[in-house]
Amino acid sequence: MSMASSPFSSSAATVGESPVARAASSEKVIHLVRHGQTEMNVYLHENHWADPNFKDPLLWDTRLTSRGQQQAQSLSTVTSTLSPRPEVVAVSPLTRAMHTAQLAFPSYQSEARWVAQPDARERLYHSSDIGRPVDELRGDGYHFVDYSLIEEEETWWGGDPYVLKPLEPEESFKGRMVNLTRWLASLDEDCVALVCHWGVLYHLTDRQFANCELMTVRLGDLTTFKDRCCCA
After folding, report:
1. Dihedrals φ, ψ of 125, to 5°?
2. What does pTM read for this prediction?
3. Rg (alpha carbons) of the chain, rounded to whole number
4. pLDDT given for residue 21 in this prediction
5. How far apart are CA 110 and CA 125, in angstroms?
C-alpha cells in the first residue's frame, strides 16, 4: 500500500463558472482507494480475460476474499490518521467496494457523509461487475449509506441481474468518468474519500492501483478534470 500526493495542476475555466470558483474546486482533496482482493481477482490471476478460451466464472457482484478483508482492515490504521479527514466517503455500489469502505473507514461512519455513487462502478467487463438492487445492499448491512443517486434506478450497473452483458462501450465509460469528476467538483465538502475500482482509478490518474492502495491527490490533478470535455 502506498500514499502519494501530486502538485496542483490548473486548467481552463468551466463555462459559467468563475476562474476563482474553479481554482477552489481544483484544490479539493481526494483520497483514492481501490477495493481489496476479490474472488474474481484470484480467478483472473490464473485465467487471463484475453485468452480465447476464457470462461467467465459467473462470480456475480464478486466479494472480497479473506485476504481482501484483511487488506481493508489493515488500511483502517492509515485512514484513521488521514489529514485532511474525509467529510464524504463516496463509494461504488458494487459490493467489493462497499465492503472495503466499511472495513477501511470504520471511524468515519459517524463523522462523514456516505454516498453510493453509481458512476464510480467498474467498467462492465464480467459477471463480477453486475451489481445488485439497493434493497439487497441495505439488507447486507450497508444501511448507513445514502443511495439517493440510484434510488430510482434498480439496474444502476447497466444490465439485468445475473445476465452477462457485452463489454461496456469505451465512450460510455469515459462519459461516466467525466460525470463522476463533475460530481466531485460540485460537492460543498473540501475532502472526499473515493473507494472504487482499478479501471476507474486508472482512467482518473493514468496509474495502476494495487488492491487496497490509497493515494491522495487534488481534484485538479485528475486527468478528467484537466480534460476540456469535463469543463464544458
Report:
1. -110, -50
2. 0.88
3. 17
4. 53
5. 34
